[in-house]
Specification:
The chain contains 9 helices and 25 strands. With 464 residues, the chain is of the alpha+beta class. Strand 5 and strand 6 (76-77) form a beta hairpin. Strands 1, 4, 7, 8, 11, 12 and 13 form a 7-stranded antiparallel β-sheet that branches. A 5-stranded antiparallel β-sheet has the order 19-23-14-24-25, with helices on one face. Strands 15-22-21 form a 3-stranded antiparallel β-sheet, with no helix packed on it. The termini are far apart.
């Protein structure tokens, strides 16, 4: 017998990117190795399949099958959850859905999205061969709007509340690179309505609803969720203050220097929900990928020290199992790419976000000149003169937040003693960062990137 689903649970959600998003299209162009997904207006959007996959993954298996369908050889069942694509909001706070010729500041920014440069560093602190790549990103502050419809036979908001609560949680990330600083979002607003289609007024209201996100349906009502008390993660918060110069390279130079620090514009929303573009020259960026790489290497060092694994006790072949991404603590906390055949891949259990901040004072930049000296003659090596543009902002403090999945180690069937060593190695690496023992960014051997700071775990100070 055909199921009619008497009830319709409708929600309209507005999200804001707290860190840049990487919604890959699988394509590349002459400017970048990875282009974000774009709609008919050449504007970034979040595909409904991406949202559906994230929501499905967050639900228990039984509820996945019940609400989002399944397919086996014997039977199949369609999804009761319908999602729209998430479209960006224009500078006046309205979704851009369908063909649009109106120009505004947000659209103008989207036509030339920032490109983030990456280079893979090995355990010896140098770039790996073929480890350079870049990708197009959606800048911090971009807002998206999408709608969800849940068909149900029950007069119950429980499952919709669970989905909305998941999206609102700190651990919800969108797109790729969620373990490397990208994908953190914030839920700005929720509009909701539950309809009983057996009631003529509700049916008429439902039939009047447009599928276009530009048209705000008059049936929606403001909706407030209870605060999400997610205890699945251990939270770490570091308040860091640079002690000297810092340099996070952009991968290219400018008219003043051969190498310059990374810059990206961000979008800031006013109280009247109008967008303001903050120029990239006025923003300080510390990429999460730089922090992740440094922490991973230092965690491996402390873990090997606790395990009493020293270089003079091992052969060169044996040492390969204890360094870099093959280190057990690194694989457990930061993930693994698997072997050469792509097997045994493992997702990281630490969530980290980029640090993006607009300082209260104007940025102080300085160009440092360098020259390589010939050790035999004491003179300059021909063609070895170069310069770099660094930042000096000792009065600015930065907040770095990390989330560690609570059950990450218990799920891995490690013995209790080894679990404690992994945790201790990671927390010691964080403490090193606060003490100034672990510099971040480029030119660390020339004095750049040292910080002093305070470390908190679940709100309690553990180092000051």
């Amino acid at each position: 017998m055909k199921n009619t689903y008497k009830y319709r649970l409708l929600s309209r959600i507005t999200l804001e990117a707290l860190s840049p998003l990487v919604i890959g299209s699988g394509n590349k162009n002459i400017k970048t190795d990875s282009v974000v997904a774009k709609d008919v207006n050449e504007l970034p959007y979040i595909p409904a399949t991406t949202l559906a996959g994230l929501i499905r993954h967050s639900l228990p298996e039984e509820e996945q099958r019940k609400w989002m369908g399944f397919q086996t050889k014997e039977e199949s069942y369609g999804s009761q959850l319908i999602l729209s694509e998430a479209k960006i909001l224009s500078e006046d706070g309205k979704p851009i859905d369908g063909l649009s010729n109106k120009e505004d500041a947000v659209k103008q920014l989207c036509y030339q999205l920032p490109i983030r440069q990456h280079v893979r560093i090995n355990h010896q602190g140098v770039a790996e061969k073929n480890g350079k790549f870049d990708e197009e990103i959606v800048p911090k502050g971009m807002r998206f709007c999408f709608e969800m419809e849940l068909m149900s036979e029950e007069d119950d908001n429980e499952i919709m509340d669970k989905i909305l609560s998941t999206i609102q949680s700190n651990g919800f990330r969108i797109g790729s690179g969620s373990r490397s600083g990208f994908g953190q979002i914030s839920m700005i607003s929720i509009l909701h309505r539950k309809l009983n289609l057996s009631i003529p007024e509700d049916l008429k209201l439902y039939l009047s609803k447009s599928s276009s996100l530009e048209n705000i349906w008059e049936g929606f009502e403001p909706y407030t969720l209870a605060e999400n008390t997610n205890t699945d993660y251990i939270s770490y918060e570091l308040t860091l203050q640079p002690t000297d110069f810092m340099f996070f390279g952009a991968g290219f130079g400018n008219e003043c220097s051969d190498m310059t620090f990374v810059r990206e514009p961000v979008i800031q929303w006013n109280n009247d929900d109008r967008a303001c573009i903050i120029e990239k020259e006025k923003v300080i960026l510390i990429p999460g990928s730089s922090v992740k790489g440094a922490l991973a290497h230092r965690t491996a060092y402390h873990y090997n020290k606790l395990k009493r694994c020293f270089a003079d006790d091992k052969s060169a072949e044996e040492l390969q199992e204890y360094v870099g991404k093959k280190n057990e603590a690194v694989k457990l906390l930061f993930g693994s790419e698997g072997d050469n055949r792509g097997k045994n891949k493992k997702r990281g259990n630490i969530l980290i976000s980029d640090i993006i901040k607009k300082p209260t004072e104007e940025l102080e930049k300085k160009v440092l000149n360098h020259v390589k000296i010939d050790r035999f003659t004491g003179g300059a090596v021909s063609g070895a003169l170069f310069s770099e543009e660094v930042l000096y902002s000792p009065e600015t403090s930065f907040t770095l937040k990390l989330l560690l999945y609570q059950d990450a180690i218990t799920e891995d069937k490690k013995d209790k003693e080894d679990k404690e060593k992994v945790f201790k190695a990671f927390e010691t690496a964080l403490t090193d960062l606060c003490k100034g023992y672990l510099p971040l960014g480029g030119g660390v051997n020339r004095g750049n990137g040292t910080f002093k700071g305070i470390l908190k775990k679940n709100g309690e100070t553990i180092y000051e």
